[in-house]
Each structure stands twice: as C-alpha cells, then as structure tokens.
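Query structure, 836 tokens:
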C-alpha cells in the first residue's frame, strides 16, 4: 500500500469539528486543474457543489450522487457522495471527507475502499477525526498527517429544558417521531423550529436551513445528519437523547459520535456549547463524556470495515464469495452484511435470476441493480422484491425498464396532498426512481426521465417545506417572542375599532364583547399563549365595555325571541346574559354570560341590575296584562278566587282553558271580574286570555319567557297574523293561542267571537240559524264550525231551507269532587270559602 518516492503526496488533515478541514480541501481542489471530493451525505455534496459553482461556473462543475447527476461535458471538478465517486477518472486532486466513517458498520467498507484506492494524479487529501491516525499509519504510511485545532471553544452548558434553550440552538433527536415531537413543543413554547433530517431532499433541507439562517426561527431540530459537516450558525447543541437505533439495536452514542454532533455548535471564531435536555438518567452526559468532548480526546480506531471494492464478476457465486472474503491484515475487518449484499444473496437463490445471469456483464448488471438503495426503508425482503422486478426488466428484451411503468410510478407520487409523513414517504419513493433514472443504461431515455423524477422531487420538496413550516412554525408567536422574550406580560396589545387585537400591527385575535377569540389560524397549542397574553392586557378595555353596558341605552339591548333559540339578552349584537327561571314567569332572573366573569363583582352587579330594569320595563310595555296579573296574584287584599285565576294566568303566559279554572272562575265576584276586565282579560266561553298577547310581537316575548321558565329553547310560533291553520301546523298549539278543532286550529279570540255571535243570535232554546258570514270570513270550515258549536253547548236542529240550525242545550260542566275531609288541606278550603 506504500507509494514510491515519486508518487503524488497524500495529506491527511485530522481534527475535531470546526477546524476548517472541508474548507481547506475545497480550496486545494479548486487550486488544481481538476479534482473530486467524496462526501458522506448527499446534502453536504450539494452544499459544496453550490459553493464551487460560484467559483468555477456551472459548466465546469459536476455533482454526482445516487439520485442526482449533473455532469456538464466540460466538467473538471466533481462533488460526489462517497458511494458515487467515479474512480476511473484521471483527476489532479482527490479528497475523501469524514474518512473515519470507515468504522461504520453499514457504510464503512465504502469509505475504507476510497481511502485505499481513490487517488489524485497530483494530490490526495484525507479528512477525518484524530481517531483515524493509527489507521492511516497502517494503511497509508506515506501520508503526511496534519492536525488542525478547533477554531473556537466547545464547552458543556449543562442540562436545559426546551423552554429555556438559548436562541440559535439545534436540538438533536434520533428518530423522525422524536424530531417531530420536539419541533411541535418548540412551536408551542417558542414559536417554531426548522427541521433537518438526512432523509430530506436537498431542496427541502436548504429551504429549512435558509429559514433558520435568516432568523425566521431561532431553533433547529435535526437528526445526527448535522454532524456530518453541514454548516449552520448554531450557538448551542442540545441532545434530546443519547441513544439511537443503528439498524440492529438501540445503543448509546459513542463519545466520538457525541462530539461530532456537539461540534456543530460555534462557527469559526465564535464559541459554542452543548448539553442535554435532562440532568439525570440515560439522556444525561456523564462527567467522563463531558471531559472527553470538551478536550477532544477520543479512543483511537483500531480497525476499519472492508469489502472488496473490485469484486470478481465471473459468476454470481464468485461475486458473493469475493464480497464475503476476509481481508488481510490486523486493522481491516470484514464488513457486516449490507443491504446490497443481502439482496444479492436472496436473488441468487432464484432460478430465473441464475438463468439470466450467465456472463460477467450480466453479473455486473445484477450487482448494479442490488446497489439500488432502500430509500423507503422497507426492509430487506420487500426491497428485494422491488430490486427483482427492476432486474427482471434489465435482463430481458432491450434491457431497459419500461417507460410506462416508470411513468405510472412517478405519476402516482406526483401529488402534494397529505401530511409531513406522507410527503416524506413520497420523496423517498421519488429518490428511488431518480436513482434509476440516473443510471446511464437502465432507461431508453434516461435524461428525460431523470428530469421528470427531479421535477417531482422538487414539487414534493417544496410541498414538504411548506408543510413543515405550517406544522412547526408559528410566525406570529415567533415574532412576538423575539420582541419580548417569553414574558407575555410585555405584549403591546392594541385593540382596533372592530375589536381586532394586534401586537405591532400583527393580529393575534379579536375581542367580541368581553370574550377574546384567538386568531382562527392559531393552532390549539398556541391558544394558551395568546390567550394568556391578551388576558393580561385587555382588562382596561373590558372594564370600559362593562361601564358602557351598565349604562346601556334601551335601543342597544334586545331579547332573542326566534324559535329554536335560547332566550338571550343581546347588547350591540353580542349575547351578554341569558334569561332563566325567576320568582314568576313575568319576573325571570338574569344570568350573566360567562365571558363577563373577567369583570369584578361590583361591575357584574351593576350590569345585572341594568339588565333586570330593562327586562322589567320591556315587560310593562309589551306584556302589561301579565305584569298586572302578577301584581294581582300577590295582592293580599284581592279575593282568593281572583288571586288563583291571576296566578294561573301568569303561570300559563296569560292564556288558560276555562274548564281548568272553572271552580276559581265561578268564585269570582263582580269586583274581581271587573278588575280582570280592566287588566284586559277576556273570560270567554272556552278560554281566558288577553287578546293583546296574541299579537306577533307580544306572542314572541311570551314564548321567550316560557322558554326561560322551562329551561328550554323558544318554541316555534305560528306565522305572523295567522288566524286559522291546518291541524298539526308548527306553532298551532293551545300554548300559542290556538284551539284544535276538527281538522283546523283556530285562534282563541276568534273562537270567542264565534261563540258570542252564536249566543247573540239564539232566542232561548228555540232553533236558530247563526250568521254564516262570520265563520266564512274567518276561514272556518263547516266541519270545524259544527264541532265548535257542539263544544259550545249547541246541538243540531233540522235544517231550514238547507241552512243549518242549532238549539241551545247548555254546556255540560265537569263536576269537581270536593277535597277529602281527612287531610290538612280541608281546613284551608273552609277558610278560603269563608273569606270569599
């Protein structure tokens, strides 16, 4: 492995994060006539590609990753992922970044192979951590090893809760679920966070990082992908956990892994800090780990994983054997079985695969198909089925994947509907098809389909960025907290003419009456913050409104009387109280709306008194009979019969069936009857009522009071002005002033008019013919009139010239049984009879 003295130099630049290693390599590459650097992440390769394009021009710089290939014909500088480095190119400079990843169980063999075989014509540069030093001495003893110190200090800042993290912090988690949970908590507490994960497309990752870099959010939530050289202005790195699933088991991070991630804090000459979210338990740092990270002292690597980078393609069995071969030497160890090898071994057991793979060229084609990454994380068996279908097409006919299959799968993914997880899943699927399209000989028109796959990934990436921002960033809360910190008491709340509540012209909600309504686009978790902020600052405005309500003009108050609603008191269009049962129907109680609880007790008492006065005044104007009846029922000087009738009429809203009160009505003396008539009560043949209560406005108030007393919604009333309705029509009830007769419902005051007309027309007990014009003008049908006349105490007589005639026979009244003499109420009955 050693080189001759004239061999191009190999330089190894080792050191912790923030030592400028990658920056140095890019400068050295650009100083050569051509060059290439292999990176551990597609995201990092893209980041450096964009930087080199600005220096060398878009037509001279190439980007090669599994899913993306931009190779201009005049390209001289190549930025690649380690797996995609074209080792057959003769380039002046070759660099390998994060070479210590040769110790990674899943991908280590790739980095080891590049360390051993990737060489520049004029210079080779290997970048990595100090832990790689013994491996370089063993595998590349001719390398000039240089150590670079960190530009800034990295110190332990202790454990901090999420709510107390400093601005410009990155919180690192080790699963998508944990990343989303932390980001959601930051959105609620601090206004939001950008999200960076290795599975994101470069476009989404760049958009999220740009949002963080521009200061639109002060926090970043990421997986350990940020440890691989992604450059961001992070001042503090907080670990949400110190355990990760490595594909095989849940394990604690190594100290080197902790340091790689923690080292993202601080940039250039600015110091950085790191810490955890908990002080104790498995998520906390030990003193030994803290010391090692601060002083950049980590265990040296004693082996790297290796797999033959140029396996034998003579046959499938030879290929598998060479991939499973063990290396020579004590510092190389056979790599664990990676996904590509596991897929190869499964397909090698298929007869149809062996039938098609009979030449080294087809073995190479099969191995290339097995290299299709499992972007969707389906697992070996489902991924093997997918690879098998791909290879099936590659090994038959023209050797191309059918464009219709490719087009259908891409079209299926080309939709931006769905949540963050759904969009991320579609992007993973799109990456698989982008990888296929970027293979030069897998499609008949690879350039076209690569462009199509790129378009879909970009659309999905834009949608994912928007979805991440909508889900995890509340720009309103971010802006507010940036101005005032977490102290909501300092919010400069302003209330507009329409009740809109704003902070620095930024709407956070509106004040409807006394209730603060959070802006509808605020999510559930934000409402507590905004509500708390507004509640502290709206007291003066609410008190001002309370004073206005306590002195409200009559014209600004109203009572809801529509059917199907609760009886509510309305002030300037907003409900401020409800009517509930009181001492009597006409004296309901006012119950203030809960929104007025924000006022002090003295102010609420003033408002309740004002609303009580308004209800009393309105009742006197609209329902004078009920007010007078209520007074009569409580008048100690009135006769018992009058008090009984008055109380019953108040209880029934001023309308009562006479037969129900017959005993009390019969007991009315002339003065009592006179007083009832003065009140406006008609003692009819069938009913007692005040005709004014049947007018639409009074009837609505009456139904509202009944609903308040009963604790129900207001009953539906009959159409305004209705006199005769079909039986069963909504509102055609006795409670609404209609009497059901035959197939019709007739308003009780008109029933009384017909009854009086009949009595005026009769002559003793001789047959008579009532005036038919009255019933006809009212709209009463003959059958209804016949039933009514019978109910009034008339019976049909033989007609005269086909005109119906009637004979008065007197009404049959139900006999009321006297109360039993063996109970306490008999004495009261005697007393009542005596007083009458």
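Result returned for the query:
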């Amino acid at each position: 492995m050693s080189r001759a003295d004239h061999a191009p130099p190999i330089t190894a630049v080792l050191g912790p994060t923030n030592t400028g290693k990658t920056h140095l390599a890019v400068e050295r590459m650009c100083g050569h006539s051509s060059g290439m650097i292999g990176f551990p992440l597609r995201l990092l390769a893209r980041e450096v590609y964009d930087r080199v394009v600005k220096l060398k021009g878009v037509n001279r710089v190439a980007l090669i990753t599994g899913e993306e290939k931009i190779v201009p014909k005049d390209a001289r500088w190549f930025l690649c992922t380690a797996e995609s480095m074209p080792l057959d190119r003769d380039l002046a400079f070759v660099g390998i970044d994060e070479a210590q990843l040769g110790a990674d169980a899943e991908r280590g063999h790739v980095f080891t192979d590049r360390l051993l075989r990737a060489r520049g014509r004029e210079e080779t540069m290997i970048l990595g951590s100090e832990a790689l030093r013994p491996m370089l001495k063993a595998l590349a003893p001719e390398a000039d090893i240089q150590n670079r110190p960190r530009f800034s200090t990295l110190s332990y800042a202790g454990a901090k809760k999420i709510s107390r993290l400093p601005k410009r912090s990155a919180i690192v988690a080790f699963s998508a679920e944990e990343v989303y949970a932390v980001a959601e908590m930051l959105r609620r507490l601090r206004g939001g966070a950008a999200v960076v994960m290795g599975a994101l497309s470069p476009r989404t990752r760049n958009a999220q990082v740009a949002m963080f870099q521009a200061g639109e959010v002060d926090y970043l939530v990421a997986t350990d992908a940020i440890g691989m050289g992604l450059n961001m202005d992070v001042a503090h790195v907080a670990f949400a956990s110190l355990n990760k699933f490595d594909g095989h088991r849940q394990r604690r991070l190594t100290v080197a892994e902790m340091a790689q991630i923690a080292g993202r804090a601080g940039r250039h000459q600015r110091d950085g800090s790191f810490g955890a979210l908990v002080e104790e338990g498995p998520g906390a740092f030990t003193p030994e780990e803290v010391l090692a990270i601060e002083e950049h002292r980590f265990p040296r690597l004693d082996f790297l994983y290796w797999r033959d980078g140029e396996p034998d393609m003579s046959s499938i069995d030879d290929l598998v054997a060479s991939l499973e071969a063990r290396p020579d030497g004590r510092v190389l160890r056979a790599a664990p079985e990676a996904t590509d090898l596991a897929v190869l071994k499964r397909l090698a057991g298929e007869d149809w695969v062996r039938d098609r793979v009979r030449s080294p060229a087809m073995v190479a084609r099969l191995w290339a198909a097995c290299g299709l990454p499992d972007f969707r994380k389906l697992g070996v068996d489902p991924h093997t089925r997918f690879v098998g279908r791909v290879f099936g097409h590659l090994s038959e006919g023209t050797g191309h994947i059918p464009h219709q299959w490719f087009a259908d799968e891409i079209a299926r993914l080309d939709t931006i509907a769905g949540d963050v997880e759904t969009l991320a899943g579609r992007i993973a699927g799109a990456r698989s098809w982008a990888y296929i399209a970027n293979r030069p000989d897998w499609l008949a028109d690879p350039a076209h389909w690569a462009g199509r796959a790129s378009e879909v990934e970009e659309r999905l990436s834009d949608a994912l960025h928007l979805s991440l921002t909508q889900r995890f960033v509340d720009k309103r809360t971010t802006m507010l907290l940036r101005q005032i910190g977490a102290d909501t008491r300092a919010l400069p709340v302003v209330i507009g003419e329409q009740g809109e509540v704003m902070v620095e012209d930024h709407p956070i909600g509106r004040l409807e009456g006394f209730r603060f309504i959070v802006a509808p686009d605020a999510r559930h978790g934000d409402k507590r913050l905004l509500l708390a902020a507004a509640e502290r600052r709206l007291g003066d405005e609410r008190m001002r409104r309370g004073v206005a309500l306590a002195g409200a003009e009559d014209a600004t108050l109203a009572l809801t009387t529509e059917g199907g609603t609760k009886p509510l008191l309305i002030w300037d269009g907003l409900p401020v109280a409800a009517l509930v049962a009181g001492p009597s129907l006409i004296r309901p109680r006012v119950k203030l709306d809960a929104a007025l609880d924000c006022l002090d007790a003295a102010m609420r008492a003033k408002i309740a008194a004002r609303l009580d006065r308004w209800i009393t005044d309105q009742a006197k104007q609209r329902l004078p009979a009920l007010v007078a009846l209520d007074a009569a029922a409580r008048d100690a000087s009135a006769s018992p019969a009058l008090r009984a009738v008055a109380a019953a009429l108040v209880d029934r809203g001023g309308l009562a069936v006479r037969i129900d009160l017959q005993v009390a009505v019969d007991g009315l003396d002339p003065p009592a009857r006179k007083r009832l008539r003065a009140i406006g009560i008609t003692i009819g043949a069938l009913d007692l009522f005040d005709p004014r209560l049947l007018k639409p406005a009074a009837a609505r108030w009456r139904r509202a009071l009944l609903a308040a007393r009963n604790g129900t919604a207001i009953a539906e009333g009959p159409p305004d002005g209705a006199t005769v309705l079909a039986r069963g029509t909504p509102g055609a009830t006795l409670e609404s002033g209609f009497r059901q007769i035959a197939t019709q419902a007739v308003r009780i005051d008109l029933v009384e008019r017909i009854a009086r007309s009949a009595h005026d027309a009769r002559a003793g007990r001789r047959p008579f013919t009532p005036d038919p014009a009255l019933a006809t003008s009212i709209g009463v049908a003959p059958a209804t009139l016949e039933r009514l006349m019978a109910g009034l105490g008339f019976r049909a007589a033989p007609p005269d010239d086909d005109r119906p005639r009637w004979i008065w026979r007197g009404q049959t009244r139900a006999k009321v049984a006297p109360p039993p003499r063996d109970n306490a109420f008999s004495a009261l009955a005697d007393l009542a009879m005596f007083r009458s």
